[in-house]
Amino acid sequence: MAPPSPDFEKSFWRFEKILHNLERVVTSWFTTPLVLLIIRSIFLTYSLITLALSIYVEFGRGRLHTYLTYFANLGFIGLTVYFAVAVVHSLIFVIYDEPKSLSTQPRALTIAFWILYDVVVVYHILIPIFYWAILVPSRIEEFNSSPPLLTFHEISIHSVDLFMIIVEVVLSRMPLVSSHLIFVLTILIFYLFETWISYAINNTFPYRFLDWREGQKVAGYYFGVMGIAINAFLIQKLIHMIRDVIGRRTWRKGLMHEMEGYPRAGGNRSQQSSVGRSRSRGIVVRSPANEISTCTCTDEIEMQARA
């Protein structure tokens, strides 16, 4: 696959952070790719079960025709798709010890996957906030009297999703760059337009606080949605920064114990041999992807840690 052009590397969108380091998608600062795969697989299984239950519940309510007008439903579909794609890439990496699926697919798909990540990590902070702060208080009696199956569905869609996203953010090495806030807000604006389309078709808004028939105060909710989305993005940006700072320090400490070499599971036997012990001959470096390479100076080691 041809490397991105120099102009592309200086892109405002910083796509090179993924395209030049595909291992970020399938590796972790704190655990092995196999453990990351197992956790993602568990989350995918839970998401698929919850998604099927969600469709069943909406069918029982007679609201299946409006299923895709609800932001929480769309958000959970996006979350499920993210974990499905992440599991495929992680599985292939664990099998082949290299990101074959990422390196052979069109760059546009890798970028689209990254944008999907940007969206789900922000929206699944936004969804629980609006559900528990606005929707539940307005129908607390209905929520308290809900049957267990419906309660499980509501909590899964509006709470467990946040837990899964936080675990994914902490354990993965996916980046979050500031310019991608534009993608997050643009998609959110499109959804707000969709609520108007829903009103034109079904004569109702999916959420009462977005219904312009309720008065001018609704305008505040529209701006509030955008404001909370921006703050959710900033919170996630901070979490990503803290994760990477701690992760790099943890990796550097582990690097000091790798001077004698570290066998790469499933790798070539030639890579498992002892490499030079001195600075002039190079030292063995194990990245978070469990890849072994030879560096001849500490500057190169530092560059790997910052990747």
From TrEMBL:
Gene Ontology CC, one term: membrane
Transmembrane helix listed as a keyword: yes
Organism listed in the record: Ambispora gerdemannii
This protein's UniProt keywords: Membrane, Transmembrane, Transmembrane helix
Superkingdom assignment: Eukaryota
The protein's name in its UniProt record: 3788_t:CDS:1
Keyword 4Fe-4S: no
Transmembrane segment boundaries: 34-56, 76-96, 108-135, 181-201, 221-239
